[in-house]
Amino acid sequence: MKPPYHPRLPIAMILLLGLLCLLCAALHSKPAQAEPGSALPERVTMAQLLAISREQSPRFAALAQRREAAAAEVVAAGVLPNPRLSYGRNDLLTRQNTMYDGRVQQQVLLELPILIAGQRGARVEAAAKSELAAAAAIEAEFAELLREEWGLFVKQLADRRRSAVLQETADYLGHLAEIVSGRNRAGNASRYDLLRVELEHKALQTRLETVANDLAADAGRLGVLLGLPEWKPQAAGKLDYLNVSTDLERLWAEAAKLNPVLAAARLNESAADAGVERAERERWPVPTLQLGSAFTDHPYGNASYAGVSVELPIFDRGQGGMARANAEKRAATLARELSGASTRSELERAVDQLGKRRATRIKFENEVVGKLNGLKAMGEASYRLGKSSLLELLDASRSRTETQLTHLDLIQAEIEAELDVLKTAGLLTAAAAER
């Protein structure tokens, strides 16, 4: 007789096997990982670039790691010295015991160093000031990084304007080719004129491709600079002046407060002063409190022990540590003085360059750029009326294009000079955050 058929049993087994398969797949599957740079925007403003530099750039993370190392030194400086526990055993080797009753004596000794001269506080203070100096040095290096980033950012904006100027000229040459072609059909222009326009147009197309290649290269360089080689950001915004003041004394007052290089030099000197204080504290010997017990078991006997151990500073009185600390202090003082003098000189140079570049740009705009508006129409009308040759018309077009490109060069140079002034005055990061 066949056993009764149970239809639910295979279904339950199938469900159980399915659950086990899902569990195995979940255990062996790897979590999806986002591709590097997938969350980064394709177009960025300067403020966004600053935020990405601080929050996502591996290069800045490597800089920030140095502060973590300095913070670890603060933790290490605040740790108290460990106590020492020792154990000893005396076994009788002769038949007669003349030292103690019993054949074995054991002893336990606890030694506890006591920092009575304020060594721990001096160590912590020196390490904390070194951490502040390290943070200021990191900000100084970040300012250099930001200056390089902003320079590439400005170059992208300028190249985009250059591309627009060249494209406008290319369109005009295309229009001019139609005019020459019409004159050629009417017998008023030679094939040479038509060929000359075409060659000029091709040469301009090559310059356009070169500027496009420069734009792509600068985007890649910007990503590499931040440690994000897969990211090729495009600068968003327009090429515009930062309106930086050329008041040297006011800028120097700002630099004295905000320049990270000067701040790092001051903090290094302060850390060196704390190092001298630490070395003076370290000259004092550290006494050790000793507590222990000695006992025998056959027969049982116990004796307690208490004592103090201290190093006698006869030969080594910390002369080496003091000499090293004083030398580091003198070096830090000289470095601070040199940093102040070099920063002042650099600020004077940057302000002077900004003033000269600004004056050159304004003069060029007044004497040259203002006269470009009618040049194009006048040249084309003169050519149509037969008063000028094609070469003169092409020369006028080329002159107009080169003038516009020179104007862009002057604008870019002035903005870069403004960036140098901002960096030296310690205002670069704040200015970037506002863009």
TrEMBL record:
Pfam families reported for this sequence: OEP
Keywords, in A-Z order: Signal
A GO molecular function held by the record: efflux transmembrane transporter activity
Signal peptide positions (record): 1-34
Family that this chain belongs to: Belongs to the outer membrane factor (OMF) (TC 1.B.17) family.
Record's protein name: Transporter
Organism: Methylomonas koyamae
